[in-house]
Amino acid sequence: MALDSDRIQWLKNRFKDSVKFCEPMSRHTSLRVGGPAEALVAPENLEDLKALVEWSWNNRLPYLMVGEGTNLLVKDSGIRGIVIVLTQCQKTIVQTGEKAGGPIVTASASVRMRSLCAYALKQGLEGMNFALGIPGTVGGGIMMNAGTSHGAMGNVLESITVLLPTGRTRRIRREQLDFSYRTLSWNRDLTDGYQTQTVILDGAFCLRPSDPEKLKKEARTILKTRWKKQPLGRPSAGCFFKNPSSGKTAGQLIEMAGLKGKSIGGAEISSKHANFFINRHNASAADFLALIALTEETLSNKFNIDLEREVKIVGT
Predict the structure, then answer these.
(1) pLDDT value at position 60?
(2) Which residues form the domain of 283?
(3) What pLDDT sits at residue 229?
(4) Is 182 a catalytic residue?
(5) How many beta carbons lie within 10 A of that of residue 197, not counting itself?
């Protein structure tokens, strides 16, 4: 165990009801699977978050940042160290400046994507409609450069603020960020050599004034299309695989391989969208891992294609 009695006591004293031990991650992931986290903490403010990250780093304890647990598969064996849930932390959306005639809107990492989209619509601001229907939080969306056929975070992101494990914060400008398909990175020198250990605190987005009614009409069309194509009635983690750089999409390839509707245990490849793996009935993480392995092996054998996972798999 990474946590001894002294560390457990410190967490209890510092975070009281905001910390839980041996907490099932199935309660904190959109797939509704996952073994226990040694400790799960939901900081209530930025001060608590900074204290927890710095303490974890100084004590050489691994920590994992989680928003709404979308795009995440936790193994049945669980997670060692600290899981930090951001959904109870600072949640603000404010206009913080202007660029090229449009406002800069800054949203905390813990803000839900749907809340940022709703804010932009209400204010008559164009640029966020592409993200309508994308689950999870702003922080997670930034980290994976979330997007759809209508656009991606990299199209509107102006800068981010990150927290280093040492407790310091840094602002990273757009020109210092490297965007690629479902990925965001930056030069490690910008964060004192840290990258995977940094925590995104907020993102600033460059939006444009537009006709509110036009934006709302567009939003209704986008959501209607997403609802029609995606399985909304079962727990899932969104698209499981990244689309290849050219040719057929991952979903089309999985369907062509004859795997649409295939199930192992309680995990199933959706019959509505073959790139969605759903929790059909009390699935385990092992069920999903077996289904992933089957899918990858089948597509490799049939099409000589190695799909890249979009969903992050974590755990011991």
Answers:
(1) 94
(2) 231-314
(3) 85
(4) yes
(5) 17
